[in-house]
Design brief:
The chain is mostly helical. The protein is 77% helix and 0% strand.
């Protein structure tokens, strides 16, 4: 806490006024960053894009924002990779919200005849958990190693839209 107080140019006493422990401060930091990501993906979900464009944009905004947060916060990065229980606990609300956003976009696309997926709810959950599984490899650059961004974007778009049974020219 002394190091944190010095970095923040505050006294330890001031830091302890707001946070009882280093863990509590870490949780507050992670929660703040998760809220930033949540705001970014909500903005995409509420945009005027068509559902097929919206879902792809949301995926990339989410992946890029998560990578940015982890890279910007080396302490968070350490906790992110080493204590998944804390992260899962703090992400619960975010995860539920992300699934709801995916479900809404997929249902909208199904209603408009863009997607022919049988269950928007199952598709939303599946997509969410696939993204969670790809986070660490994406952050570390393993997924897109030696692949340019344009190809990566096109490939991702084809995989996701095909999985949703998209009836667009992007398929």
């Amino acid at each position: 806490m002394s190091d944190i107080a010095a970095e923040a140019q505050r006294s330890r006493r001031t830091v302890y006024t707001y946070f009882k422990s280093k863990e509590e401060l870490l949780e507050a930091s992670i929660e703040m960053e998760v809220n930033k990501i949540s705001s970014a993906i909500t903005k995409v979900a509420m945009s005027d894009l068509s559902p097929d464009k919206k879902i792809i944009r949301l995926i990339f905004v989410r992946l890029h924002a998560t990578r940015s947060v982890i890279r910007r916060n080396s302490r968070l990065s350490s906790e992110y990779f080493n204590n998944t229980w804390i992260i899962e606990h703090l992400r619960h609300t975010f995860d539920s919200k992300e699934i709801a956003l995916f479900r809404s976009i997929i249902a909208e696309g199904k209603h408009q005849g863009i997607f022919s997926v049988e269950s928007p709810d199952l598709a939303a959950r599946f997509l969410h958990f696939c993204l969670k599984g790809i986070e660490v490899p994406y952050i570390n650059g393993i997924v897109n190693k030696n692949i340019d961004d344009k190809f990566m974007n096109h490939f991702t778009e084809r995989v996701i839209l095909n999985a949703l049974g998209a009836k667009t020219e992007n398929k």
